[in-house]
Write the structure tokens for this entry.
Amino acid sequence: MTHQTVYVVDFGGQYTQLIVRRVRELGLYSEMIPWTTAAEKIRADKPSAVILSGGPKSVLEPGAPTIDFDVLEGIPILGICYGQQLMAHRLGGQVEKVSHKEYGHRTLVPSSATPHSLVAGLASDQVWMSHGDQVLKAPDGFVVTASTDSCPVAAFENPKLVRYGVQFHPEVTHTPDGKTVLKRFLFDCAKLKADWSSESFIDEQVELIRAKVGDGKVLCAVSGGVDSSVMAALLIKAIGDRAVCVFVDHGLLRKGEAQQVKDMFLGHFKANLKVFDAQDQFFDALAGVTEPECKRKIIGENFVQVFEAHATELQECDFLAQGTLYPDVIESGSPTAAKIKTHHNVGGLPDWMTMKLIEPLRWLFKDEVRNVGRKLGLPEDMVDREPFPGPGLGVRILGEVTRDRVRMTQDSDWIFRSELKARGLNKGIWQSYAGLLDVKTVGVMGDERTYEQPIVLRAVESEDAMTARAVNLPFEVLETIASRIVNEVDGVNRVFYDLTSKPPATIELE
Ligand code: XMP
């Protein structure tokens, strides 16, 4: 490793990922490792510091998750919640069950006897607690540095051994000055130096990609989304035209996006971009199909067919690039398990596409991918792009997908999103789009009766797409957008706004 690494040992805590993010925000590379494999990994990798996460179990239960403290000898440690209790339990202190779980804000009272401790003199004395057990007695050699009215050992430390423990959660925003605690541990106690940034990530990856790929070629499919674009830009920086970028234009992207992909890669990056214009093929295959899962399947299969049709020119590639991100790696449970994300969107990969995988973004969270994209020179509206489903407008057009219905959807979507953007209302929105319904309604325009199709607008707030809530957009803005759509988009005579949350609805219409 060319940079320092902070391992966060996961004991199943709900905030473990957040600890990793906070450490990275402070300019240090951090990875989460499961407690089951922590000891061997720590022995082999010798991280610069280790943070022990919270967790739902009790250290007092038989078989509770644990770690071998001998392998941590000489490595700075911060135990958080369960991590602190585990330190106490394993190092000779005492842990007790509390009569009822403590959950919420508490006032931290630092000990006056330790004015230079990890938790002394914080800007806010409010801390977030979420625990069932607590430390009753610190291990020998440790001093208690803070308490709360209900928790006698809210923090302890042994500065000589660089071992610290806190019962509260410094990683959550509910602990207003929690970042200071992490900062002090990493920089003042463990004496680390910030050496992780988008720039250093790019430099390091460029070297790694070059070393891995050698003289080979990498097949990199670009979809118009953030992840594949950033991945392609990184590969191009590393290996130039040996990054063989492929863009399948199925005609189901948002207005102007296909052109933007071509302009960006051909113009700005001078990339080796192969554009496969497959619009006719996709529209022919989708003609007359209305069943949602059938449409998805057809779109997936046609992707594969396009790749099959160009097999000869693509088979010269030695590697296949995948846009796997760090949350996918964590979710898959094992950092080494290769999860083929595109399987979600394409109907399986052709047999010959079993090249070696390369996943240059597998260490990054989404916001870090965006930062790397900015540093690589991707335009802001590409870097800030909202998530967009693999089957594209195919899942936003109910009923048959035709060129004319794609036009109506694209034009309405463009009006909706540009009006939101012009007012800065797009900030904080997870996804916003216009979809087309598969019914006709009566209207009147001029003096004429119309019998045309309605557009539905959807804008949701979400953390992770698992749950979502409709955005409370100002009525006047919705009214302006509706008026523009019915006036400017031929074939649309009515506009609805979708108020449903997820669950019970989903974010997409199909
Ligand atoms: P739903 O509609 O299930 O969507 O609430 C959750 C998130 O997943 C995206 N989505 C897809 N992404 N292929 C994708 O790559 C798909 O088939 C697909 N369907 C939904 C959706 O945009 C949202 O972000």
